[in-house]
Amino acid sequence: MAETRTPIDTDILISGGGVAGLTAAAAFGQAGFTTICVDPTQPVTEEAAEGADMRSTAFLRPSREVLQAAGIWDRLLPYAAPLQIMRIVDAGGESPTARLTRDFDAADLSDEPFGWNFPNWLLRRELVAALADNPLVDFRPGVATTGLVTRESGAEVTLSDGTHVRARLVIGADGRNSFVREAAGLGVKTIRYGQKALAFAVTHPIPHDNVSTEIHRSGGPFTLVPLPDRDGKPSSAIVWMERAAEAERLATLPTEEFEAAIMERSTGLLGPLKLETRRAVWPMMTQIADRFSGQRVALIAEAAHVIPPIGAQGLNMSLADLACLLKLAEEDPVHLGEAKMLDAYHRRRWPEVKAREVGIDLLNRASMVESQPLRDLRAGVLGALYSLGPVRKTLMKAGLGVR
């Protein structure tokens, strides 16, 4: 007879061990919920290792509160690069030089920075270490979610190692091609831009002074985000969005030619840029699930929504998902995962995410424009919005997610 494994009971099963899934596991474990987190791949926690996530994440102020509640902020803070100023540069003139620069300074809102930037591979390293210290969290890397059956009374999940789990709530944090979303019968709408983004880290002779700089010309924004010094040299993470064919060409350039290209595209703001890591490339899209919840299922992060990396919105929206879901769970733990709770989650998060998706979509399309008249119009709109103090502050608060 075939061996029958006894099902494991847990409050929450999280499918997906990226930054959002690991943070969710830490947060729910810290809140007293038994939590199993699975991911089909082993986490890559060293920068030089194959498959390391070369992107960086700027956690904005509201996200810090989520990380504090999860008990992991103090672990991360020593590796933070504060973001004091968000600088937008328009280089859409005839030559690739800065013709309009506008600074949004966090000091206009409070005595704290907008946020703090971290390399994604480092976030994974610290999150995995934090989970190991939490007795309520069982992190299982190398294990995929392969089956999901839900009833009003709970969910039954099958894992790739043959384990069966009975959970009160299943959280889909398993990315843009989410198995959980599909298994729950939740549809999704996708917009593809024909763009790809390159992500890598550089050093430079001119200090960044905690200024995050987004440079617009055509093809998409070129963003320099502060990192802590590397071997005593100022360092920044770069995300360069371009038309797909151009991004692929740039990704394969010899290092010397690539460094010349990023020097030109950066308008020389920080001096010559030296490539310090490999170049990662990934496709740009906007995507939103039709619903963020189903029977005993909640979607967070890229399982629920994907946007281009503009204005540090992506993972901060994901942590806002988590904050909302965690609050609902803590308010009524007896009814965790029931329809009333999950309907409330969808109602609170979906309209907010949709509004931000529309805004980021417009900003991305504006950043892609090729024609000179449209590039001139873009610069004019930026200048006009910035010149109105109340509008400038409203934009900054909206970017932080502050009402």
From TrEMBL:
**What taxonomic ancestry is recorded?**
Bacteria, Pseudomonadati, Pseudomonadota, Alphaproteobacteria, Rhodobacterales
**Which cofactor names does the annotation list?**
FAD
The keyword Oxidoreductase appears for this protein: yes
In Swiss-Prot or TrEMBL terms, this protein is called: 2-octaprenyl-6-methoxyphenyl hydroxylase
List keywords of the entry alphabetically: FAD, Flavoprotein, Monooxygenase, Oxidoreductase
Going by the entry's taxonomy, the superkingdom of the source organism is recorded as: Bacteria
The coiled-coil segments of this chain are none
Q: Which SUPFAM superfamilies match?
A: FAD/NAD(P)-binding domain
